[in-house]
Amino acid sequence: QKEVEQNSGPLSVPEGAIASLNCTYSDRVSQSFFWYRQYSGKSPELIMSIYSNGDKEDGRFTAQLNKASQYVSLLIRDSQPSDSATYLCAVNILGNTDKLIFGTGTRLQVFP
Amino acid sequence: GAVVSQHPSWVICKSGTSVKIECRSLDFQATTMFWYRQFPKQSLMLMATSNEGSKATYEQGVEKDKFLINHASLTLSTLTVTSAHPEDSSFYICSARTGEKPQHFGDGTRLSIL
After folding, report:
1. CB count in 10 Å sphere of residue A80
2. A–B interface: beta-carbon pairs under 8 A
3. pLDDT tens-digit profile of B62-107?
4. Contacts of A46 in chain B (CB under 8 A)
């Protein structure tokens, strides 16, 4: 089993809709979770970080964490074509909080 | 804040050449820097973790004699790909962090070995 799993997509949503991106992880004691956005040919950009169960909102983005289910998600409200990118879920690894393991990413397409 | 600069953006060179990539944290002191490699349509794979003033910690399967990492200051780390071959062609990305804060990435270096 991969340590961090994401559906590769593409996830296609119309402009203005809510995009829901999901991620599951295998390490039960992971403490830190991150969502990065990566445009084609570019490096990842930090979107959200979340450390405790529940929701964390930042503008149009909401991260949701459920440690019991080992599940973290990212909701993008009022999706825009400029949100079209690959979204990478990253989870820290037990024993070394510096080391992140990335999922393979979900490609999001927002069409006008 | 949290700007990480990576240079060069593109490198094209002949097989057997050594290539140096620089990673700088511009507005913060990076206690730890990381080097990743990303092949097309794949996720980021951590190559090594570098702490200022100490030897880098390499991930399993990454040759430390081929990928030389130097982290001489709190704002600069370098990755040298020695005697590069076509299979080393990839997108190399550095990131930096301070303390327990999230990692911030440089713009990446696209390396093409002919």
Report:
1. 13
2. 40
3. 999 999 999 888 899 999 999 999 999 999 999 998 877 888 999 9
4. 102-105
